[in-house]
Write a structure and sequence with these properties.
The protein is mainly alpha-helical. It has a domain of 61 residues. Helices cover 57% and strands 4% of the residues. A hairpin with an 8-residue loop joins strand 1 and strand 2. Helix 2 runs antiparallel to helix 3 and helix 3 runs antiparallel to helix 4. 13% of the residues are buried.
Length: 93
């Protein structure tokens, strides 16, 4: 008989954050600013520690967040201002 790990199978947040987690609520609104990104990452850590989000899901979110930060860094370093673009929009050449 094959053994199954029911604890992992029934872990909260296995398919993503539960709808009661703060991370889920912040992610629904999207992330537009660095402060929103910090709030999202902070709530993600809290939700992992309280068991509302599976650590594998949090790992994937942190990896994706790191790539977003890298993109912003590259835009700041190599980007050019777009004439007529609102705010501080920059495009990479």
């Amino acid at each position: 008989m094959k053994k199954t790990n029911t604890a992992k199978k029934n872990a909260p947040g296995l398919n993503g954050p539960s709808s009661t987690s703060k991370t889920f609520q912040l992610a629904q609104n999207g992330v537009q600013t660095s402060q929103e990104f910090c709030d999202l990452m902070s709530s993600l850590m809290t939700d992992v520690l309280t068991g509302k989000v599976d650590p594998d899901v949090a790992n994937a979110a942190c990896n994706a967040g790191g790539k977003v930060i890298r993109l912003v860094e590259l835009q700041y370093k190599y980007g050019k201002r777009v004439p007529g673009a609102p705010g501080s929009n920059m495009l990479l050449p």
